[in-house]
């Protein structure tokens, strides 16, 4: 039977047939079967539905559709029950199907499986109204991923079946073509496109109407139209989903263009890597021919136009139009200079017009709705929408169609939901290998052709890859240059040879052998390639390098000067991911392996030479190593902190201690005669002192307290870190010859000038002991305590003003320590934190322990005022409930106050809202401050302050941080001070050679991560004694066997 | 130009007929050479372009052999060597790269004992086959499966959000 449409009645018949399929009057189930759905198991879901529907004899209409955009939630399944809204179910697996069908057969839709509902859908060329209902399921536009999206290009994707031409016709498809052929005024269509200011969606943004006009005016016996679907930009897949979900929209756009420009033939150039897209297009073209919409005598109007399909064979450069044409001519895809432009001399010398896939999708809507409607959306210079593939390190990945001019932060945070796993977003890469990276500080940037170009990037075809703190921008630049280098066609020298040189230089960076001069060379070379290359590939290839160097210069410098890749990506700059993330850069795989080989003493030596306070950090470290451990890709990170605690605890206080200490002392280098003063005996100062002493210097530590340890001794509660542990560790430092002068405040008892005169170098590490100022009514009341003085008083067994009902304000470690300490003093404790649980800076295990011990935590509440009891004491604290607003610079949602006031009855308020540097000291020192004036300025690589021979580290230069970070600064300062004093790099001499296995374990232990045991919470909360016990020997041993030994490389 | 090329000794009659028909079907169409080469490779069980067939193609169409080889070596899709019975393909697209696809590649290489210096091709397309011809490991510039990154394909079956262990298990199944 012929389906040919030749008049209005046959057109209407197809339309009606399509509507019957779209809204069949029986339940309709459509499985999202784009490649993304299939990759998540959609095929099995489809077959499960087919089998069960058949077996149960249900008369359901089962079909398939394309991707609705939210790829992270695939497989998506659309369900339409008669008289109900269209409901999109998410993450449906084959095993869900039987139960789901039971529900559907009974007319129920399980709301817990629903992503959203659609009561009315604007297909642009038509509107489909479904019923209202299902109040418990959100409207599609209320789901954050879709909020603000405007689906013009993706108008049919995920709704209609891509293999049913009648469904396309039912939602207004081929209506524009019909109109254009009936009106038979090609010039009017071109004028309409020009008025709509539709710009090419492939990246360059040239006006489509102008291009069509040129082709129309060209005189030749053959004219070609080409659709460029050679989507070779890695990280972008818009075109694939557009074609897979709605192939007819592209065909309609091309057929209209064929008529308007007087072309004779159309060619689809599709990547061979997209087999499903190829298949869907071929099927769609067969159907279109069958319906008289393609081929001879289209719609009975005497217009002939046919389209053929060519599969591109994998060459990025063929995205360039002249290269694509060469490829179609049967040659290698090497570009030719323009002019002549393809509109004059294209394929085989005939006039040719090439448009990107997405451009064609905009044609029918403009024809049907008009130019004025189109320009309502987007920005004045760039009207309309653009589809982006939002991927990389965001929670919600998928295809997003937004008006042009939407700010980047809307994409990353509102739609994408921010970074995954609580990490911080660092940048967005747009435009793929031709684009650039845009740093988080610039996320207000509107996304359109001009603005992105100003930032050195491009919009490109719409790739948007989000990067977080674990991505190295040098590596990303190198990655793209490696790509363009291998994709360069080789025709012109700047691109071929220039990119080769650029890649060599970038490799030097990632291998840690680059010099400062390489930065300048790379910059100059990149500009040269950009300015002198023949085609778009070469001209844009340096963009990733130039933008990364502009926005992330520090990362490049770190690779050169500090040989560090903070993201831990460049493997040659790190021993292993754990070592790289450790502020002390401990050789973690080494001590794990030594313990695994049952060589406890050597394991201790390895640990204590890397970290002078291992029993302390073994208890209180924030363990950043866990976040980077590759074992966590399999199950959980190796419990490295607890293993080094186990090693330290197994030695301290045993007969093994003394001979090992002798071994450490034996590592001390001969006396240098240099005198070094260290100000502050906290973790930073102690670490610096330890290493300076090991390096043979004469070290004196000045401390204003009566004993050493700083925060370790005075701020960390005893149940977390018993005082005996600190004493053991201090003994080693004393025995290395470090002298301590206590009860002496630098700046008051001894001046900086006096220190300078008596020493060769001075290291300042006075930490942050000042409480941050809080603007809060009632802080003068009796019963308001600050966290650090409170903790210090408890540690010193002094009395405090703690009452019975305590409110702790804050979410950091000091807040949790205060809360758990107050619990142990018998108080009832409520913690008030203004953000959400996941935003708390405190160590997660500590927060959980506090809750288990009986502390309540009120989230999303900001203190408003402390209420007077009438006699100078406290009766309550009032907090304003907050909701989460926009994302701030830290990538966390900003708490926004509401009208709701929460009153918490209490007699004590502990403020734990942060600590700052003692500004009086800093100002009096005459040393230069950082911008903002709250921290000392130092050279990032040497830690030298503005005064010669004065170095600084720890909280003094970073603001309040934690023990391990402070120790890392102290260790680094010792290294740079020694190098400056001795004019040679003596650092490695501290360590003896450890001989241990360097073979990757063939069968790493399959045991899960071991956690340390604790007393149960009720018993814990009754004592200040340590209640968290070290791993048992067999558990520590098993942890060592879980290590994958990332420190061993195949090339070693 | 019509001439009857002498039949190369190592080209079967069946192959010859296949080529003759393919060429006549594609003659003068845009992208003819690409399409012909793609179909030839597709038809080979070992997914490559045998030299005798290219030789015949040149003679039959009059396209210089130099140009055919120019095209074959230019595009990443074409192989001049037989491919393994199984294929493990690792996506090296940007999204996959940021989510650690390089490690996947290294781990599968290690598992199959393939060394880096045995690779052929360049960054966008690495390919290496085990000596017994069982498995070819290759990379692709981008599958366009970015939302599932990192992605690998084992015998054209897509694995989304794949980790080293999951991939190792899949590869174990192949070589068992």
Write the topology of this structure.
The complex is a heterodimer of chains A (1052) and B (176).
Chain A: H1 8-22, E1 28-32, H2 35-39, H3 42-56, E2 61-65, E3 77-80, E4 86-89, H4 97-105, E5 114-118, E6 120-122, E7 127-129, H5 165-170, H6 175-183, H7 186-196, H8 208-217, E8 224-229, H9 238-245, H10 247-261, E9 265-271, H11 275-290, E10 295-298, E11 303-312, H12 321-328, E12 352-356, H13 357-361, H14 363-369, H15 371-375, E13 385-392, E14 398-403, H16 408-415, E15 425-430, E16 436-439, H17 449-454, E17 463-468, H18 473-487, H19 493-510, H20 516-532, H21 536-540, H22 543-551, H23 553-562, H24 577-581, H25 588-596, H26 600-610, H27 614-620, H28 625-628, H29 640-651, H30 657-666, E18 675-679, H31 683-694, E19 698-702, H32 711-714, H33 723-735, E20 739-741, H34 752-758, E21 761-764, E22 770-771, E23 784-786, H35 787-795, E24 805-809, H36 813-824, E25 828-832, H37 844-852, E26 856-858, E27 861-868, E28 874-887, E29 893-905, E30 908-911, E31 915-916, H38 919-925, E32 950-952, H39 955-958, H40 963-982, H41 1017-1020, H42 1033-1042
Helix pairs in contact in A: 6-10, 6-14, 7-8, 9-10, 9-11, 18-19, 18-22, 19-20, 20-22, 22-23, 25-26, 25-29, 25-42, 26-29, 27-29, 29-42, 31-40, 35-36, 36-37
Chain B: H1 13-26, H2 32-43, H3 51-61, H4 65-74, E1 86-91, H5 94-98, H6 101-112, E2 120-122, E3 125-129, E4 135-140, E5 152-154, E6 157-159, H7 164-175
Parallel strand pairs in B: 1-4
Antiparallel strand pairs in B: 1-5, 2-3, 3-4, 5-6
Helix content of chain B: 40-55%
Query: Quick one: overall form of chain B?
Result: elongated
CATH topology of the largest domain in chain A: Rossmann fold
Mean pLDDT of chain B: 87
Strand content of chain A: 15-25%
Top-tier CATH class of the largest domain in chain A: Alpha Beta
- Assigned CATH superfamily of the largest domain in chain A: NADH-ubiquinone oxidoreductase 51kDa subunit
Order of helices and strands of chain B: HHHHEHHEEEEEH
Mean pLDDT of chain A: 93
Strand line-up of the largest beta sheet of chain A:
2-1-3-4-5
Helix proportion of chain A: 25-40%
